[in-house]
Amino acid sequence: MCPIIQNQHIRMKPSITDALLDELLKNYSQPGGLLGPDGLLTELKKRLINRVLDSELTTHLGYDKHQSPPGGSSEGTPNARNGHSAKTLRSDDGKIAIKVPRDRNGDFEPTLVPKHQREFDGFDECIVSLYSRGLGVREIQQHLLEIYKVEVSTALITNATAAVIEEVNIWQNRSLDPVYPIVYFDAIIVKIRHEGKVGNRAIYLALAINLEGKKEVLGMWSSENEGARFWLGVATELKNRGLQDIFICCVDGLSGFGPALEAVYPQCRVQRCIVHQLRNSLKYVNWKERKAIAADLKTIYSAPTEKAARAALEAFRATHDARHPAIGRSWEAHWHELTPFFNFPPEIRRIIYTTNAVESLNSSFRKISRHRNLFPSVDSLFKLFYLSLKNISSKWTLTVPNWPRALSYFAIEFEDRMPNHHQ
Prior knowledge:
alpha/beta; 2 domains; five-stranded mixed sheet; 17 helices; 7 strands; about 45% helix
């Protein structure tokens, strides 16, 4: 909405008659005369802004032009008008040259166009919106030049997005629900300049499904090296923000995650991603054998019970250990983290045996950042991911089909840990 209408100090009831429109458009012949930087609408906006600013000064002084100040000379030298200052605004229609009235005492503060403001019509919001969709500084500059005929500096774009980092910090430290049934952890690797050095850095995400069955990103963290100490810090932070219990954590085999999680959430069940385990297994197999090996591995994770899955693993090893011993050993070594999903009904199994939910989010982040070969700082990346997340999450709906049935199962399985109002 135009700031003129939003301004609470200015109450105008528009009255545009046909006669007025006829007068305004009497010389109209083509769209160029109406739209664009030199069009009629831009001129009207400029004159309206000037008129409103003059009206604001009149309200500030308490008397109109050519009138005597209230109180007369007994009040001392009254404040008065003191000419105008030229100012150029960047707006949706290009540049607008306006005249800002001044007062003699220098204490007039315009409301419509505050001091130091150079943008009008949501210009900063436009920059932030473009930034959130992955456009770099040069791309934003080019877009604004092509669409609005306005040249903007790198500093202006940086300043327009600078306030976002404060919003990120508030979001990152917000209070969390006491219980989340399912939380997924995953990472995306990006190239960042950090402490004067350029290198790959992991950005970790925690994506939860709350008790209403909706997705919610709990936070983002950055680290050069993951490990038990790093994950202990993440888990402790989540607990300090109010998250007291997690029923199931879904991971892709993150190093050191299990021990750290157990230290903070000892009752949580850790489910290693079956899809990741399958991919890692097939790395040891040439392409001619992959189809057959994948089919035999499917008999393990598609078994109806853990007991049946164990029998399928033993059959797999008896068949393939001679040529591919590493596959069977890997499944055996991680068995306790690969099998928790067998304890749940199909509607829950489908959403916990893989980390696809958070990988889908990371895929969106990769698309947004694909043109960024290097981020100048961790803050710049967090700004982009946070703004992008706002766009992505606005389209999220109910995550899990038949969520009430899944929630009913959780209420029975974790009866003593389920909040009372969800039992």
